[in-house]
Amino acid sequence: MADITLHILKPSVNNLTARVFVRAAGLDFEEVDVWGSQGTPEFIAMNPSQLTPTLQESGLPSGAMWESCAIMAYLCNKHGLDDFYPSDPAKRAIVDNAMFFIIGSIYPLLARATYGSLGFPGYPGEVLVADVDDSVKAAAANAAETALASRLENFRAAFLADGKFVGGADTPTIADIRLVASAEFLHMIDYDFPGWLTDYTNRVETALGEAYSEPAADVRGFLEYVRSQAAAAS
Known about the structure:
- The chain is of the alpha+beta class.
């Protein structure tokens, strides 16, 4: 039996983040696809939030945890994976800063720009789930896409100006994995990647090899499926 169990949804870039990391780190793990079973009593007993990815491990106080960035940081701390998450406080602070900027400032815009096209449910209180005309929802998605460009440029200027990866690192950090995995959804809306972002995503995937490309194939296959369904319906 593997040391850790990762409960996942294959089409999700949040899940992709953790799936890439455990492979790149060479950890002993098994994956369980929980599509359609997050609302079961068994899953809720393990993880009351019903969110994925969920890491299940006997060493955790409650036996499980969720949130991709928290999962990666925990596993780095436990296994001493300094290349992914530096132990030096100042270098670690940059990685944390980058991750919090991704999940707090970049991903919300990315989600608003892409979730409608993906057929994903929006967050309560947002335009995507409001009782408004589809044209209003499309305008909101376009506004988010436009705003995303400046947030991505902020990320480049703050975290990538001094090297190939976040904070001048020579190899991908957990913050690099989080951003590049998230960017996979931008292909759904034919986002106009700036040259630096294309180079950066290629650099991260090349550095991680099959640890990235193998689970990323699930997300990319899902995007192709959604496109084919949309084409058939039009």
